[in-house]
Amino acid sequence: MISFTFAGKDSYKDYGIIVSKRPNLPSSKRRVSYIDIPGRDSSLIYDERTYENITIGVECKIKDGNLLDRIDEIKAWLFSTGESDLIFSFQNDKKYRAQVVNSIDFSQIVKIFSEFIIVFNCRPFKYSIQNNIFTITESGSSIINIGSIKSEPIISVYGEGNIELIVNGTKVNLTNIKDKIILNSVIQDSYNDERENLNNKVKGESIYLMPGSNKFEWTGNVSKIEVLPNWRWL
């Protein structure tokens, strides 16, 4: 039986929802513009290197002796949650970041059955459920990106003084570091454990982990680097 987990609640175990059929899981569309110029063959292509959100529709039905109460419970669960993790039972090692966007129409087909469609608006990617931290203690060590697209890691650098960090040719210079600095590629910010802003100590571009091998190198006094990879798939 197909089910899904949303905001930590199981659709079947907690609400008795039966998923009528396996939902279609579309891939995200890359945001590309085509510009036609008079007198020029073909079009100019402007690639923003970003992706659009996707929509997943889940066809459901419930069977219950007290449909009205059950429907109220389901609505409260789905609409009060906001954006949360969405996990399907047939792919339970990956998750979407999703939010319910439709007004749900419960159509009663027989006395004890009701059918409805839940529409989830999702961020463009699937993310790994097991997002384990990698610890690197030697310059030149590599991490393998198991996803299908570049990831946005959160990198914690433990060290002192001036450090040059190089990942796949991307250089980041860290100045006057005291014990630790966190480089968060998701929000493109740098800070310490107290969330004190340390952007003034960082010079360089955000670090991404590309599919395949990613080499970490550095110069300076570094005791270790911890990487929360945030693997993702289209």
Automatic annotation (TrEMBL):
Occurrences of domain Siphovirus-type tail component RIFT-related (ranges): 21-122
Domain of life: Bacteria
The organism of origin for this protein: Tissierella carlieri
Name of this chain's protein: Phage tail family protein
Pfam families noted in UniProt: Sipho_tail
InterPro entries on file: Dit_BPSPP_N, Siphovirus-type_tail_N
